[in-house]
User: What shape does this take?
Amino acid sequence: MPKDLVGRLDDKLRAKPGSFDEIPVVDILDGTNKRAVAKEIRWALSNTGFMYVKNDGILQDFVDSAFDVTRCGSLICACRRR
Assistant: This one.
């Protein structure tokens, strides 16, 4: 890919600073209109740089265990520093 094209793409993909009152929420369960969901994702990431994904199909038990692992990892690091 030409270097100048990479630079232009980088500028286009970079989130633009702006103000917002809420974290954008994208409901991906509404898969009936994939184009509309894709537009919501693009808007959220282009304007805020992040988003909250709703109805992603990931089981809550998995999410909870992932948080537990990170908590344990933080405790181990804290104990090693002492």
About this structure: The helical segments are 3-13, 34-47, 60-81. The chain has a mean pLDDT of 76. Strands lie at 25-27, 52-54.
